[in-house]
Amino acid sequence: MKRVVGADVARGLAVLGMFTAHLGDERSVTFASLRWMEVVDGRSAALFAFLAGVSAALLSGGPRPVTGARLGHARVRVLGRAVLLWPLGAVLIALATPVMVILPGYAVMFGLTALLLSVRTRWVLVGAAVVALVGPVVVSLVREATPLTRLPQPVDVLVGDHYPAAVWMAYLLAGLAVGRTDLAGTRAPWRLLAWAVPLATVGYGSGLLAREVLPPDAWRTRALMDVAPHANTTPEVVGNVGVALAVLGVSLLAARHLRGLVVPLAATGALALTAYSGHIVAIAVMGNAVVWQPSNARLGVFILVTAVVATLWRRFVGRGPLEAGLHLASTAFADALVPAGRRRPDPIPGVMGSDADQQPAVEHREPPVGSRTPGAPPVGDDLEGDVVGEGVGEGLAGELRGRDPLGPQP
């Protein structure tokens, strides 16, 4: 199947949105008039989690889910990456920046998603709905019972104040279901937008309505209907899923009709883990004042440098450094545990539009790593994708080389 460049564009927007939430100055006239901080705060991280579910679906076959050994291989790869993300998140937390690091919770949710790769899509959607309804109540009860207690990190990741898996799994499950649809189809963006509008309207609308009609003494119900960023309530989750669908739908359209303009965003999305981690390291080096005393000029520099470096890195190097580490480690782990499901890239010269993570196994002798067939990329390079910011693949590479990245349009 063709590379879903639109997913990388959406992921790039999510990463840059988190930059804005952490570094943007909402007191500026421009930001205040557009209420831009309200747009990116909370929703960017939710979009990032939603796209993790999409990536997990693509890794396991997309609209044609893999089975048997291939499914086992995909599951182990996702689990391996989840295991590696936890210590990376711990390192970023140890830098003691004001940023609430999403990676430990992301790792837990990613691992849980790996266990659900074989579940039918309808039940994945049912699971997402159940989590969205029940999770906020569970988290609220835990908060009431432990208002001043610092929870152990494993417990905090599940039901704590920031990115609780008991609520945020709804985003990954929704993304997993969406990733099993034909995102490369011409109707896919419009289907996503058709669902986005009612979900966003019902989610945010119900929360705003509750704020107006519920009496002040109904504080528990008001809290469970809040739609403020990171409220972790059912209305907020439903609304955020609607926004995620809309962003993905628009990104798919942009990747098809505005190919050249989306290259920096797609590159940033392909290096999402590196970009996200890098901006936290930069904050630690520059000092926490860059968060507490924000500057939109400084934010602009962060965004510009990230987009330029990501684009050049994708053009001349390929997979990002953290993405490459996760890919190599998780693939080696999966190859060792499930050798029968090992992916075998197609060695035929000129086959440039496929993604080995999304292709069925091809029975042939695999050429040595590093060998190059004339006209084809090196084995293990751009034809493979990463779950955490899966590679842009030939779509972006083609754009950077001056040819149509998406191929003939239907």
From TrEMBL:
Residue intervals passing through the bilayer: 45-63, 83-116, 123-142, 162-180, 192-210, 237-255, 262-285, 297-313
Residues forming coiled coils: none
Entry-linked Pfam families: HGSNAT_cat
Region of interest (Disordered), residue spans: 344-410
Keywords, sorted A to Z: Membrane, Transmembrane, Transmembrane helix
Domain of life, source organism: Bacteria
Cited InterPro entries: HGSNAT_cat
All copies of domain Heparan-alpha-glucosaminide N-acetyltransferase catalytic, residue ranges: 3-185
Name used for this protein in its record: Heparan-alpha-glucosaminide N-acetyltransferase catalytic domain-containing protein
Annotated source species: Cellulomonas bogoriensis 69B4 = DSM 16987
